[in-house]
Amino acid sequence: MTKLILSIVFTWLFVNILKPIIKWKKAGKFEKRFLAEDGGMPSGHTSWVAPLATGLYLETGFSYLFIISVVITLNVVYDAISVRPKIARQARSLNRLIQGKEGFEKLEESVGHTAAEVLVSLVLSVIIPLVVYKIF
Q1: pLDDT at 39
Q2: pLDDT at residue number 35
Q3: Is residue 12 scored above 70 in pLDDT?
């Protein structure tokens, strides 16, 4: 159980430390908002559930718990690459409509992920738990 928790925490921490570094490199300068923004490379939401699936497989094999965790992971991945990008496009459109109008708060536009961003998170969500289970 400890290895499972460590796998999830280490993967999530690694991804959420890596994400602002990638945004910083891409922008050419560091901004505080990079620490709290959604979206971008790699997927932070995927880094919560995918290492759970990996860890459960390592602990229980091809079990009901593993299958349930895979279903949850697939749901999060679908949301990240399909639903949230649509929300981002809607936010951009709404922000254009409300631009210059008082009483409206600008909506967050960086909420979705590309398939590549999710794939990187999935790969890290397999590698990091494998390392954790090997070391601990």
Answers
A1: 67
A2: 67
A3: yes
Q: Which amino acid is at 77?
A: V
Tell me how far apart the alpha carbons of residues 66 and 86 are, in angstroms, rounded to a whole number.
Answer: 30
Buried b (16+ CB within 10 A) or exposed e, 56-84: bbbbeeeeeebeebbeebeebbebbbeeb
Can you point out the beta strands (E) in the chain?
A: none
Give the Cα separation of 102 and 85 in Å (integer). Answer: 26
pLDDT, tens digit (0-9, with 9 covering 90-100), for 26-44: 877 877 776 666 666 788 8
How many angstroms separate the CA atoms of 38 and 80, rounded?
10
In whole angstroms, what is the distance from residue 1 CA to residue 5 CA? 6
CB 73 within 8 A of CB 119: no
Angle of helix 115-135 relative to helix 46-60, nearest 10 degrees, comes to 40
